[in-house]
What we know:
16 helices, seven-stranded mixed beta sheet, single chain, alpha/beta, globular
Amino acid sequence: MAELDRPGGSPAVPDDWTYAPAPESRDIVRLRERYGLFVGGEWIEAKETYETISPASEEPLAVIGQASAADVDSAVTAARAAFANGWSSLPGSERAKYLFRIARILQERAREFAVLESMNGGKPIKESRDVDLPLAAAHFFYYAGWADKLEYAFPNRRPRPVGVAGQIIPWNFPLLMLAWKIAPALACGNTVVLKPAETTPLTALLFCDVLRQAELPAGVVNIVTGDGRTGAALVEHDGVDKIAFTGSTEVGKAIQRRLAGTGTKLTLELGGKAANIVFDDCALDQAVEGIVNGIYFNQGHVCCAGSRLFAQESIYEPLVDKLKRRLETLRVGDPLDKNTDVGAINSAMQLERIRELVESGREEGAEIYQPPCHLPEKGYWFAPTVFTNVAQSYRIAQEEIFGPVLSVLTFRTPEEAIEKANNTPYGLSAGVWTEKGSRILWMAQRLRAGVVWANTFNRFDPSSPFGGYKESGFGREGGLHGLEPYLRFDE
Ligand code: NAI
Ligand code: MG
């Protein structure tokens, strides 16, 4: 048949192998024109509003409330009332039922959430579909399991809820960060006021629908949208017993200063500049995949991204050659296209920050490589980028870029790799690629990082604690460790 359809003279084998577009339908998402704040189980209007957009097209998606200090106060009051009027004294097995329900509803509505996450945040649909949503549901399932077992988790310590948790999250994994924050808080019997990031409020607002479906008592979870002013009002509020923050080191430090001496519990999950260390005995092709996943996953908007590649000198050339060739096959474009590997940069502000740091890399003398790729006219885009010839002192080797930009450095011995990898104010994650198990353990003991991946990168599991050293913050999320920040103990 194909013979007949072929216009005369064209070759049997096509010379253009580009994919046809395969966009996911947006029909499953029903956006409202405007959203209020979710307080005490009801929607309330904010006086001030702003527009949230799609970073891939700059198309406006909805009008969002900018919560004032008075709105934050209403939310904290609602959370306090819900805490006192039953939630904190509910048996753990009853709290668990709500968490299991939320987890199951997220699974049932996964496609709707995934499409909305990609529309509002710019991340490829295959990531929101295969990573963000399954992990968010898994987090609720996991902490549902702990809700009635806190006495076993902390024997003889009489674990009790802290009270009202104020939670501030970033824009890189909007729903997943919400799950990381809300699931352990509720499992431990706390109530919540959560503020999503200003550029990505939509999945948190859709999540309010899930809370209603699960019949979670009013006021147990309150969602207030807005920018840093709303976050600051939450931190300032006297009625909040615990703050959990994920975001920039700069804001994290300001929050820590503000809360010093107040008795408010605090956990901070801040930036990173992870070393991905590749030894010459590793499986090279597998390492290349890991490097690509480490830095181009989610456009590099990942706090634990493997943004500094340390290549052992003996394999530097083949490694960089293979990496550049692999980069040519990355598909940059429409986040809703199922073939897309690298989506849109989250905001104009973040794009500006990436451009500025990349420019500094050129000026300081690093060599830049970007594969040929067509970037769409509208929206915020940045091509996957590799810098070679990078010195440790360059800004691109020191500062978190939070974009699809890799800095390649080299080392000769394991000792030198450790020395260089730890030469950073951050300490969130690291990767080691080698065939030798003994070397993996030797390296893991010496790397100052909360998570060390071996022969893989950017793997997450709700049972595994995640968090940083040094300027990457303190406190752990996930696992048994992730319960502790949401509990008080008799000691
Ligand atoms: P940011 O730290 O300003 O924003 C994170 C969250 O904090 C947002 O919800 C924001 O509204 C809120 N916030 C801002 N100012 C606040 C304040 N004074 N008090 C309380 N809450 C406040 O991060 P931004 O400006 O979006 O990104 C700047 C850089 O930070 C990025 O380029 C990246 O390097 C880093 N970053 C790291 C993240 C991580 O996961 N570790 C996440 C987001 C950003
Ligand atoms: Mg900021």
